[in-house]
Amino acid sequence: MTSLHPVVLDPTGTRRHDEHRILHSRGSATQVTVLGVTAWSVSDPILLKELLTSPAISKDGRAHWPVFAEVVQSWPLALWIGVQNMFTAYGADHRRLRRLIAPALSARRISALTEVVEDTVTGILDDLAGLPDGEVVDLREKLAYPVPIAVIGHLMGIPAGRLDGFRATVDGVFDTTLGTAEASRNTQTLYEVIGGLIAAKRAAPGEDLTSHLIRARDGEGGGGGLTEDELLGTLVLMISAGYETTVNVLDQATTLLLTHPRQLAHLREGRATWSDVIEETLRLEPPVTHVPLRYAVRDITLPDGRLIARGDAVLASLGAANVHPRWHGETAGTFDVTRADKEHLAFGHGVHHCLGAPLARLELTTVLSALFDRFPDIELAVPHADLVPLNSLISNGHERLPVRLRPRLR
């Protein structure tokens, strides 16, 4: 295996399922090229879970990747490695940043958001119910996007008028077909938009998460607060991760149910629950396929004797790990809501497990149950093969999701 050339990952995301099989065939880990950068893709779930909890793997490229300074100047995905927040922090810095955010995503806070989620979903579905029978609706645009954007806007204290600006730039963060210059301009725009939010909240603070983080930065919380770069980077993380991933799961869950009528029947006839649908979707079609990047703090010997050397970059290939036959058997690539074991890594693992997972599950359950209850005859308006994947090797969704909520009588 040591003589194999690196797998060149497709930036358009159109070959992700083929790539999963290729990664599996190359052992627990193999070298890949991500937009010109070489890294070790780890697709074996057992090894990946071990590394995600190991101090031998860092997310701090500044400290643990010898080529960081060079790559961050020229890589289209520079934001993913250069931003300063808990996503790229290691050890004590990661624990400090996570502690600042965790209270805002406590069980009590999330429970308090239930009414916001339900009211938002009801309002959107009421509007959709007024459309003529047979009209084609882009469900990603009209439902999957608006709900999580409204919720993250409420949580972060973002005025409704600013949300469109955030969305346009966040979409660019996940687009891996952008060139270096275009990606750099998008990052600059994102920082400008978030900088404007910080300035507005400093002038008129509230009880939202943005104001909480500003208070931590400006000293009200005592020692262990945020630097200005960490404040900016943490808001980048919260806003982008707070809705893009949820949009993708709503998209994929709806698509899977509409293209697998037997599985939808299991749900409607009581053999499965919405939780089953959501967890199986997260396993089979996670919202994020690969997560760039981590770095080896020391040499790591793989099960087959190969070596991830100290300073090598590591790519957590969550999508491939979730469907590995070693974890879920020969039916790992099949959508089955009655599957007994639906364990997955869609929300990460260990110290980097997503703090927003409970909120995402609340949104997903509320939206999907209400959608299929209100529109029991919903159907795809195009053949499944005509759905176009997002331009991303990271984000796993579709450009559009055209459906008919109420088909015309035939």
Task: Describe, in plain words, how this protein is organized in 3D.
The structure is a single chain. The chain is an alpha+beta fold. The protein has one domain (7-404): Cytochrome P450 (Cytochrome p450), CATH 1.10.630.10. It contains 19 helices and eleven strands. It has helices spanning 16-25, 45-52, 61-64, 68-74, 78-82, 92-101, 107-112, 114-129, 139-144, 146-156, 163-174, 180-203, 209-217, 228-259, 261-268, 274-284, 318-322, 325-328, 357-374, and strands at residues 7-8, 29-34, 37-42, 57-58, 136-138, 291-296, 300-301, 307-308, 313-316, 379-380, 402-404. A six-stranded mixed beta sheet has the order 1-2-3-9-6-4. The chain has a three-stranded antiparallel beta sheet with strand order 5-11-10. A hairpin with a 2-residue loop joins β2 (29-34) and β3.
Largest sheet data = 6 strands, mixed
The percent range for strand residues is 5-15%
Name given to the CATH homologous superfamily: Cytochrome P450
CATH architectural grouping: Orthogonal Bundle
How confident overall, as mean pLDDT? 93
Shape field: globular
Q: Please give the domain count.
A: 1
- Rounded to the nearest angstrom, the distance between the terminal CA atoms is 57 Å
Strand order of the largest sheet: 1-2-3-9-6-4
**CATH fold-level name:** Cytochrome p450
Report the C-alpha radius of gyration, rounded: 21 Å
Question: How many DSSP H or I helices?
Answer: 19
Helix-strand topology string: EHEEHEHHHHHHEHHHHHHHHEEEEHHHEE
CATH class: Mainly Alpha
Low-pLDDT stretches: none
